[in-house]
Every structure is written in structure tokens, then in C-alpha cells.
Design brief:
The complex is a heterodimer of chains A (about 350) and B (about 230). By secondary structure, chain A is α+β, with helices and mostly antiparallel strands. Helices cover about 30% and strands about 35% of the residues of chain A. Chain A has 2 domains: about 5-235, 3-Layer(aba) Sandwich (Rossmann fold); about 240-349, RNA polymerase II/Efflux pump adaptor protein, barrel-sandwich hybrid domain (OB fold (Dihydrolipoamide Acetyltransferase, E2P), Beta Barrel). Chain A has 10 helices and 18 strands. By secondary structure, chain B is an all-alpha fold. Chain B has one domain (about 1-230): MetI-like fold. Chain B is about 80% helix and about 0% strand. Chain B is built from 11 helices and no strands. The radius of gyration of chain B is 21 Å and the shape is globular. The chains are: A alpha+beta (about 350), B mainly alpha (about 230). At the A-B interface, loops of A face helix 6 and helix 7 of B.
Chain lengths: ~350, ~230
């Protein structure tokens, strides 16, 4: 592990911002810290970047506990670089901005020139060296901030919401570049984002935060496909989240009995992704264990697909279908339809 | 009206021909105001930095108090300094009363809140983001402070100029602790006050025009610096 944060607690003006948070960041990973705005991601990153001290808890960098202050702390801090959500540019040129961190480390002018030139090409800012930093667009500013951090060749690069308020084109471009840089340099990345799709696109491992707590951590696949609770299920975009009573491989949702592939007893939640529900006008002979009939309540466009809400024994289930399927079915609110989905497609938590 | 026009034309002539009395007063005013501004800057800009970069209980109250002292009446400061430097005061043995040094001391006290307060405002204006950026790029506390001060240089210079503007145009301190002694402690403002009282309209207008020019130069410089700072 390059960074271990153990039982971190931090209170600001009587508000518990971080509440016993523990996070392990493996060396060389692209670790994504996710969660809604205001959940404590930025504060945790500030603690990780050694900009804020926690009230309680231990931080280990490469297995060694951090000293409270002094030269040793500075030496460790210099192995970490942070790119903030709204990067602040120093007055002067892009060159002087990128060179500043190297200058204060006593790097020679020749070496500074070489590294700055190299990093500008790397982040796609060729020919920008002499541009005044105050004239940069939002995207260029982010890239300059990225170059300013990367030129220091940190062992851990912290990125706080790097794509926020960028237009979609710049956002895609920055994400692709970040992924490239991560694979080329092998630097450990610790990135915070509230955008789950960004996290999925770029991260290999991560943690989801809510109100100062870690809700779930692990591989992105586990976070995506094995949500541990209701919050995680809705955060990952799962819909049709239903409270159920589990009896072995079946779950009772009101008067509806849903078959699933697990073995569970007691109460809990299940989720049925709308994409796995197949709609038909007549009951078909299929191998799917879950087959119901219901009445269409509403049909609404959702991006490129349509959300069809069906009432099944007083339980509302949403099925996502294509425009082609909708035209073929020719259904409208009030139509009777049949629904089917595989037991293995049902998520339990 | 014709009397005024005549006085105005004499005043202009006095300025153009370099009237020795008018210019010695102007020079003395500049010297006194510059000395007090420089001394106040050396003393109180570091104090402003100290307040900004440190956390302590009651900081908000201290900053608020300093800001309310921006408009402290000059006669009040004059009275305080008078009590300090008068023969029975704690600094009485230094013999400062009715000397340029007493005016300098008074002006230092007068512009101290402006220097401290505007320094704090200038540093606050730089934002926490600048401090964080410098720190995140590997700066120790000293290097970070130096970087923030460098970035705030234009705004800080503005506070120095504002202090100079207040010092050069004040009259209460100069008249109370300077005594308005001709050729020794007479400044532009005290000379104007006396000249108007004595009916010396032309010389008063000449002195007034010089004072106005100084105020304008300060204002133009403040604007230029603020523009430079934003660039």
C-alpha cells in the first residue's frame, strides 16, 4: 500500500466531516473516491495530501507513519502532488507556473527547462509555455494544473473532481489523458468524483462515501455489481430497488414472489435492473423463472431508451426498452403486458 | 469672482515659477508623509501578515476592530500623540512636541490600521486556494508565505499608497503636534488652513492645487496597480 488512512476523524465547527474513515490505496492503482457532493471526499483528499490534519487517526505513507510536522513531513509531502477542483494559477506564464514546484526543490534550470517542455507535450499543451496563465480556458487551466503536478514526478497524485464543470468534449479528453498518463507513468492516482460514470470509465478500485462514512470499498466491479446496501444500489444507478422478505432462493415483495439466484433469509432489499426485464404482449415459454403479468402505468423517454412502468400485483416495476421494441409492442398506459427476467439478474443486499 | 480668478492666476504663477515658500512646504509635506508611510509599512505590513497567517482566539474581533479604526478622526489621534509627547507624557523627555518627528509619529499611528487592515484584506483576497496550491506543490510554510506575498504585491502596494494618501492629506495631527511652525513643521494642509484664515487666497490655492495633484497621482497609481494586479 502506498497510502493507508486508518480511523480518520475530523470535525469542523461541531460538524463531523470524517467519521472513522479507513482507506487503503494500493501502489500503482487508480483509486477513485466516489460519493455525492458534500460527503467528505475533498476533506479526505486534503488529509491524504497532508494539507489538513485529522483530529484522530493514523496516516501511513509506504508503511511509515507520518510525522506531525517538520522536515520529515515536508519530505513526505513532496512525494505527493494535488490537483484541486478549481485550480489556482500563479501570476505569470504557464512556464513559470509549472516550473515553480521544481524551483523550490532546487532543481537546476537546465533540468527544469527539459522537464517542463516534456510535460507540456505530455498533457497536450505544446507551444503554451509563454502564454499568460490568466488567459487560459477552463480545460487548459486543468491541463496546466495537471502538468504542474505531474512535472514533480510524484509517487501519489491526488485529483479532486478534475472533470467538474468541463464541457463533455474536454471532460472525455481529460479522462482519456489521465488514463494514458496513469498507464505510462505507473504513478498511483487518487481521484475524487461525484460522477459514477467517470469513476467507472477510469478507476480500477475505489470507495464510496456518504456523510463522512465509507459506504463500500473494493474493486469497481464489486462496487458496480455487488452493492452492499440501498444507498449503494441507488448510487450505482440501480433501479427497481424493492424491500423484500427473503426465504431461501425466493423473495416476497408484497404479494409478488421473485426468484433469485442467491440463498438468503430475513428482510432486505433486491434490485432488478430495468434493462433485464423483457416485455411481451403474450406469455412466452421461456426458461426465465420470473414471469409476471401487469398493466402499463406510464411510458417515458429516458435518453435513447424508454422507461415503461408496469404495475405488477401492486408493485411498480420499470422496464427499459428500445424505440423499436416500443413500436413493435404498440403499448400505451392501460395495456396489459407480460414481464420476464432471469433469477440470476436479481441483485440482493 | 474676479478676485478669485486673479488669486487663481497668481497661484498658477507661483507653481510655474517655483515659489520657494510654496515648494519648501510641499517638499516638507512629502518628506514627512513618505517617512511616516515607509515606517508604518515596515512596522505594520509584517504585523498584518502575522495576523493573517496565524490562527488565534479572537482573530475575527481583532480584524474587525482594525477595520473600524480606518476612519479614526485625525484630531483624536493628534490628541493622543499630543498627550504622549507633551512634556508630562511618557515620551515627553524626548522633546518631540512641535517637531516634524511628532507629526511623523502621529501619522504612523493614524495610518497603522489602514496598513494592517488592507494587508490582511490583500492576503485574504488571494484566497485559501493560493496557499493550498503552493503547499500542495511542496512549499514549506515560509516558502508558501513568500509566494502569497509575491502574488499579493500589487494589492499590498495599494495599501501603502492609501496610507500615504491619508498621511499627506491629514490636518488634525500636523496642527496639534506639529504646531504649524513656518519653515519647520508647516505642511500643505496646515499652511492652507492658516492661509485661508489670514486671507492669503493665492498661496492657499497654489498649495491646494499641489495637494490635489498629489492626491490624484496617488489615486492614479492605485488604479494602475489594481489593474496590474488583476492582469
Amino acid at each position: 500500500m502506498i497510502l493507508q488512512m486508518k480511523n480518520i476523524r475530523l470535525t469542523r465547527e461541531k460538524n463531523k466531516i470524517l467519521n472513522n474513515v479507513s482507506v487503503d490505496v494500493p501502489k500503482g492503482s487508480f483509486f477513485v473516491l466516489m460519493g455525492p457532493t458534500g460527503c467528505g471526499k475533498t476533506t479526505l483528499l486534503r488529509v491524504a495530501g497532508m494539507l489538513d490534519k485529522p483530529d484522530f487517526g493514523e496516516i501511513l505513507f509506504k508503511g511509515t507513519s507520518l510525522p506531525g510536522k517538520g522536515k520529515k513531513l515536508l519530505q513526505t509531502r513532496r512525494k505527493i502532488a494535488t490537483m484541486f477542483q478549481s485550480p489556482v494559477m500563479f501570476s505569470g506564464t504557464i512556464l513559470s507556473n509549472i516550473a515553480w514546484g521544481l524551483k523550490i526543490r532546487g532543481v537546476s534550470q537546465v533540468e527544469i527547462s527539459r522537464r517542463v517542455e516534456e510535460i507540456l507535450t505530455f498533457v497536450g499543451l505544446d507551444g503554451f509555455a509563454k502564454r499568460d496563465a490568466s488567459t487560459l480556458s477552463g480545460g487548459e487551466r486543468r491541463r496546466t494544473a495537471l502538468a504542474r503536478a505531474l512535472v514533480l514526478e510524484p509517487e501519489l497524485l491526488i485529483l479532486d473532481e478534475p472533470t467538474t464543470s468541463l464541457d463533455p468534449e474536454f471532460k472525455r479528453d481529460l479522462l482519456v489523458r489521465l488514463k494514458e498518463i496513469h498507464s505510462i507513468t505507473g504513478t498511483t492516482f487518487l481521484m475524487a468524483t461525484h460522477d459514477f460514470t467517470d469513476a467507472l470509465a477510469i478507476g480500477s478500485i475505489g470507495a464510496v462515501m456518504r456523510e463522512g462514512f465509507i459506504e463500500q470499498s473494493g474493486s469497481m466491479d464489486d462496487i458496480m455489481f455487488k452493492p452492499e446496501n440501498h444507498f449503494m444500489a441507488s448510487f450505482t444507478g440501480l433501479r427497481n430497488i424493492l424491500h423484500a422478505e427473503f426465504i431461501g432462493s425466493e423473495a416476497k415483495v408484497k404479494h409478488l414472489t421473485v426468484a433469485h439466484a442467491g440463498l438468503k433469509h430475513g428482510s432486505g432489499f433486491l434490485a432488478i435492473p430495468p434493462e433485464v426485464i423483457v416485455l411481451s404482449l403474450s406469455e412466452k415459454a421461456t426458461s426465465e423463472r420470473n414471469r409476471f403479468s401487469g398493466v402499463v402505468q406510464s411510458i417515458e423517454r429516458n435518453g435513447t431508451t424508454w422507461d415503461v412502468t408496469v404495475d405488477v400485483a401492486n408493485v411498480s416495476l420499470i422496464a427499459a426498452i428500445t424505440t423499436g421494441a416500443l413500436n413493435e409492442l404498440a403499448i400505451s398506459p392501460g395495456s396489459s403486458v407480460h414481464l420476464s427476467f432471469k433469477a440470476s439478474a436479481v441483485h440482493l443486499f | 469672482m474676479s478676485h478669485l480668478l486673479e488669486a487663481f492666476s497668481i497661484a498658477l504663477r507661483m507653481i510655474i515659477t517655483g515659489d520657494p515658500v510654496v515648494f519648501s512646504i510641499a517638499l516638507r509635506t512629502l518628506l514627512i508623509a513618505s517617512t511616516s508611510t515607509l515606517a508604518a509599512a515596515l512596522l505594520f505590513i509584517p504585523l498584518g501578515c502575522l495576523i493573517h497567517f496565524n490562527r488565534f482566539r479572537g482573530k475575527r474581533f481583532v480584524v474587525g476592530f482594525i477595520q473600524t479604526m480606518y476612519s479614526v478622526p485625525t484630531v483624536f489621534v493628534g490628541m493622543l500623540v499630543f498627550l504622549m509627547v507633551s512634556r508630562t507624557g511618557p515620551l515627553g523627555s524626548m522633546g518631540l512636541l512641535f517637531s516634524p518627528w511628532a507629526i511623523i509619529l502621529g501619522e504612523i499611528v493614524l495610518i497603522a490600521p489602514i496598513m494592517i487592515g488592507l494587508t490582511i484584506s490583500a492576503l485574504q483576497g488571494m484566497g485559501k486556494g493560493l496557499e493550498d496550491t503552493a503547499t500542495a506543490l511542496g512549499a514549506g510554510r515560509g516558502t508558501m508565505i513568500l509566494k502569497v506575498l509575491t502574488e499579493a504585491k500589487y494589492t499590498m502596494l495599494t495599501s501603502v499608497l492609501m496610507g500615504f494618501g491619508r498621511a499627506v492629506s491629514e490636518v488634525g495631527v500636523a496642527i496639534m503636534v506639529g504646531g504649524n511652525i513656518a519653515g519647520y513643521t508647516r505642511t500643505l494642509t496646515t499652511a492652507i488652513a492658516l492661509g485661508v484664515g489670514k486671507g492669503e487666497t493665492a498661496s492657499s490655492i497654489a498649495l491646494g492645487l499641489i495637494l490635489l495633484s498629489l492626491a490624484m497621482v496617488v489615486s492614479i497609481l492605485v488604479n494602475l496597480l489594481q489593474h496590474g494586479g488583476r492582469k
